[in-house]
């Protein structure tokens, strides 16, 4: 079973307007509320790919009820821990004529010790053959090491894990051999305090993450596609042409496509192809991509070997 952990889920309030002027009243041309949070997005893509997962996380208050109701139409398996304080609302502003996306994410509820303990109890049965995908910010009062501590615990029981994180937190996960890490090219450059001028430079730095323990490294590059780097090979997926509607969740979609497929077939290249299709398909959709869009985009992506 794949478990996704979204410690800090959200209602994503996605607003579209022509242009955004700060300090003024702006009016939307359309607005939708979506059940958000990185692990939730991963579970939603897995569902589209017909791969079972259970979504875990902390949900509370009246916004939590709305979040669950928004999510219910997607028919995911969930096992949320109820908390006292409200689930957050994240505001996503797509200013069409400015071609600009602005996000304002809330801090989320404070999690009490009892709520945290009850959540962790759920993970005691996770073991060999399971994968736990953890992503997104932490709500108030959870320790910075929350995801890392979970990785240590479930790994001792034989499970695989993915933590979608950046910076030092990403480096800290590597000795535990995560199934995959997926920095974007800017995040990878920041990790090594450098800038990249070629794919080869990106590949060389991605290999350092393999040397430190990652089992697979994907480097996402938004409209420039993505790289899959293994010890001896590197592959590039093109970003197909299309109209970008809302790229929020493209990275989550790519992780879901890669990890979910790899669990099934152990084939990193096909997993990469599907991951790239999920990422672009989400960028070309207002919400997280649906199966038909993923299939359409898959056909427009080719994987080429670079080195
Ligand atoms: N504009 C785009 N056109 C085509 N494909 C895209 C576009 N943006 C993203 N993708 C696809 O989705 C993948 C992941 O996107 P991106 O690199 O933006 O991840 P990210 O930085 O983790 O994003 P986010 O945090 O917004 O989810 C890219 O590698 C690419 O394959
Ligand atoms: O504040 P976090 O937890 O870092 O990110 C949360 C979030 O921006 O990530 C998802 C897209 O990746 C959205 O659904 C959600 O609103």
Automatic annotation (TrEMBL):
Entry keyword set: ATP-binding, Kinase, Lactose metabolism, Nucleotide-binding, Transferase
CDD domains, alphabetized: FruK_PfkB_like (cd01164)
GO molecular function, one term: tagatose-6-phosphate kinase activity
Key word Nucleotide-binding present: yes
PROSITE patterns from the UniProt entry: PFKB_KINASES_2
Domain Carbohydrate kinase PfkB: 8-284
Gene3D superfamilies from the UniProt entry: 3.40.1190.20
Keyword Kinase: yes
EC number: 2.7.1.144
EC category: transferase
Span of the signal peptide: none
Reaction(s) catalysed (UniProt annotation): D-tagatofuranose 6-phosphate + ATP = D-tagatofuranose 1,6-bisphosphate + ADP + H(+); beta-D-fructose 1-phosphate + ATP = beta-D-fructose 1,6-bisphosphate + ADP + H(+)
Entries under InterPro entries matching the protein: 1-PFruKinase, Carboh/pur_kinase_PfkB_CS, PfkB_dom, Ribokinase-like, Tagatose/fructose_Pkinase
GO biological process: carbohydrate catabolic process; D-tagatose 6-phosphate catabolic process; lactose metabolic process; small molecule metabolic process
Record GO cellular component, one term: cytosol
Pathway it works in: Carbohydrate metabolism; D-tagatose 6-phosphate degradation; D-glyceraldehyde 3-phosphate and glycerone phosphate from D-tagatose 6-phosphate: step 1/2
Coiled coil: none
Function comment: Catalyzes the ATP-dependent phosphorylation of fructose-l-phosphate to fructose-l,6-bisphosphate.
Family in the record: Belongs to the carbohydrate kinase pfkB family. Belongs to the carbohydrate kinase PfkB family. LacC subfamily.
Name of the featured protein: Tagatose-6-phosphate kinase
Organism: Companilactobacillus allii
Lineage: Bacteria, Bacillati, Bacillota, Bacilli, Lactobacillales
């Amino acid at each position: 079973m794949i478990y996704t952990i979204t410690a800090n889920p959200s209602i994503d309030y996605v607003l579209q307007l022509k242009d955004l002027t700060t300090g003024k009243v702006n009016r939307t041309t359309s607005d939708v509320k979506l059940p958000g949070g990185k692990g939730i997005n991963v579970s939603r893509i897995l569902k589209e790919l017909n791969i079972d997962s259970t979504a875990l996380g902390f949900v509370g208050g009246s916004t939590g009820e709305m979040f669950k109701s928004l999510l219910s139409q997607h028919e995911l398996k969930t096992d949320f821990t109820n908390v006292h304080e409200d689930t957050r609302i994240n505001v996503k502003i797509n200013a069409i004529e400015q071609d600009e996306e602005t996000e304002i994410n809330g801090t989320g509820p404070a999690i009490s010790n009892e709520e945290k303990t009850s959540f962790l109890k759920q993970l005691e049965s996770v073991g060999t053959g399971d994968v736990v995908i953890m992503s997104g910010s932490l709500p108030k009062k959870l320790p910075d090491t929350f995801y890392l501590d979970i990785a240590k615990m479930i790994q001792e029981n034989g499970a695989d894990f993915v933590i979608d994180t950046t910076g030092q937190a990403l480096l800290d996960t590597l000795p535990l051999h995560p199934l995959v890490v997926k920095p974007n090219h800017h995040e990878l450059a920041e990790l090594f305090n450098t800038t990249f001028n070629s794919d080869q430079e990106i590949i060389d730095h991605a290999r350092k993450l393999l040397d430190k323990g990652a089992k697979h490294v994907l480097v996402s590059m938004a409209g420039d596609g993505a790289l899959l780097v293994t010890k001896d090979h590197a592959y590039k997926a093109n970003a197909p042409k299309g109209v970008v509607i809302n790229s929020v969740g493209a990275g989550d979609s790519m992780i879901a496509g890669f990890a979910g497929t790899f669990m099934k077939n152990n084939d990193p290249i096909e997993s990469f192809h599907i991951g790239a299709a999920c990422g672009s398909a989400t960028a070309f959709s207002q919400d997280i991509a649906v199966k038909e869009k993923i299939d359409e985009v898959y056909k427009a992506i080719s994987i080429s070997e670079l080195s």
